[in-house]
Specification:
The chain has about 375 residues and is of the alpha/beta class. The protein contains 15 helices and ten strands. The protein folds into two domains: about 1-50; about 60-365, TIM Barrel (Alpha-Beta Barrel). The protein has helices at about 1-10, 25-50, 50-55, 70-75, 75-85, 130-135, 155-160, 170-180, 195-210, 225-230, 250-255, 260-275, 300-315, 330-335, 345-360, and strands at about 120-125, 140-145, 165-170, 190, 215-220, 240, 280, 285-295, 320-325, 365. Strands 1, 2, 3, 4, 5, 6, 7, 8, 9 and 10 form a ten-stranded mixed β-sheet that branches. α10 (about 225-230) links the parallel β5 (about 215-220) and β6. The longest helix is centred in the N-terminal third of the chain and has 22 residues, at about 25-50. The structure holds iron/sulfur cluster (SF4). The site of iron/sulfur cluster has 12 residues, from loops.
Length: about 375
């Protein structure tokens, strides 16, 4: 049985405590229990020794407070936000894409291909996210289908370019969030939510009323409208923008919009103004702030270096995941138009970006990153 307890402690939440009563005449069991308690204490101590880039020697560690959306819900503000967000649907100006005259309240669709209600392609405890999100029980990922960008290298084109998955009412979306909470996830991770902000805000009061208490992560491609972000102020705990490219010629060619760089800079600055730098609980799980992703692409190292320098200007305490897992996909493979994107990224390219980031003053990197 003690071996089973060790396994459970290791595989789930190591923060266990052992309470025992001595059993007269069974010193062997007492010894084993004492050994187990010592082992767990060591595990707990190990787990709370957080890396400097996450904890900042304690200055980024906080005692968790209830998520902001609960306070807004109690004040009646969350429903007001949802109503204001619903107005953005007709004509749709939920994101920054210049769709004109699209009435999503009447279920018309624009570039994102999503009408009145959100479609969810999948939802599950995600163990592949950044450690500050996935922890040991997973990040509660809700993958919305549809997207306002046309990244030619998209690895999720099967869900980003069509309304995959069921259409969910606000109540059904709230139920998805609650199910992820019931599964033990550390947070609700809204993946590609920029075109369904009203739908998320409509679901939240229902979820809050039914007991949702997890932090909200807004996992975005950063082509967000400032009006939508303003409605999320105090609602979202962790913003996680994936900054792609800044150069208008590159974004026109590879993302389908020329103004991505300008829009993303404004959006990420607004996100940072709302939530500040990443803060974690004593277990190293994100409780608030900004986590930035950036995927290094083949031959575009200089573009990546411009992005990390800009991030350092925003705050040198920005927590950054410089991603090296680019692989060609979608139109890069199905057309002949992007031969320059068919390569893999080299170690030297990624390291040059990390070096530029460090030179600019950034120092909080996702721990899975290789050292420079
Ligand atoms: S959310 Fe969709 S329909 Fe609305 S502006 Fe953006 S891309 Fe167009």
């Amino acid at each position: 049985m003690l071996d089973t307890l060790r396994y459970v402690a290791h595989e789930t939440d190591v923060r266990l405590e052992v309470t025992t009563l001595p059993i007269p005449g069974r010193n062997d069991i007492d010894t084993e229990v004492a050994e187990l308690a010592s082992w767990i204490a060591n595990m707990n101590a190990e787990a709370t020794r957080l890396p400097a880039e996450i904890a900042g020697d304690g200055r980024f560690v906080v005692d968790p407070e209830p998520p902001g959306y609960l306070r807004l819900h109690e004040a009646g503000e969350l429903r007001i936000r949802a109503e204001a967000a619903r107005d953005l649907l007709a004509p749709c100006r939920v994101c920054q894409r210049p769709c004109r005259g699209v009435d999503r309240l009447a279920d018309e669709v624009g570039a994102c291909r999503i009408g009145r209600y959100a479609h969810v392609a999948s939802a599950f405890p995600h163990l592949g996210e950044e450690e500050v999100l996935r922890g040991w029980r997973g990040s509660g990922a809700v993958f919305f289908s549809g997207c306002n960008l046309r990244c030619v290298f998209c690895q999720n084109a099967d869900i980003s370019q069509r309304a995959a998955g069921p259409e969910l009412s606000p109540g059904e979306l709230a139920a998805v969030m609650l199910a992820l909470q019931a599964e033990g996830c550390h947070n609700i991770n809204l993946v590609t939510p920029e075109h369904v902000v009203p739908q998320v805000l409509e679901a939240l009061p229902i979820a809050a009323e039914a007991g949702l208490t997890l932090p909200l992560v807004y996992n975005t491609s950063a082509y967000d409208a400032l009006d939508s972000l303003a409605l999320l102020d105090g609602v979202v705990d962790v913003y996680m923008p994936d900054i792609k490219l800044f150069d208008p010629w590159l974004t026109r060619s590879y993302l389908g919009v020329h103004d991505y760089g300008e829009v993303a800079r404004q959006a990420v600055a607004a996100m940072h103004a709302q939530v500040g730098d990443l803060i974690v609980d004593r277990h190293g799980i994100a409780r608030g702030g900004l986590v930035v992703r950036h995927l290094v692409m083949p031959g575009l190292g200089a573009a990546s270096q411009a992005i990390v320098r800009w991030l350092a200007e925003l705050s040198t305490d920005t927590f950054v995941n410089v991603m090296d897992q680019y692989r060609p996909d979608w139109k890069v493979l199905t057309t002949e138009r992007y031969p320059e994107l068919r390569d893999r990224v080299t170690r030297a390219e990624v390291d040059a970006v990390l070096t530029a980031a460090r030179d600019a003053g950034l120092w909080r990197f996702d721990r899975r990153r290789r050292p420079v």
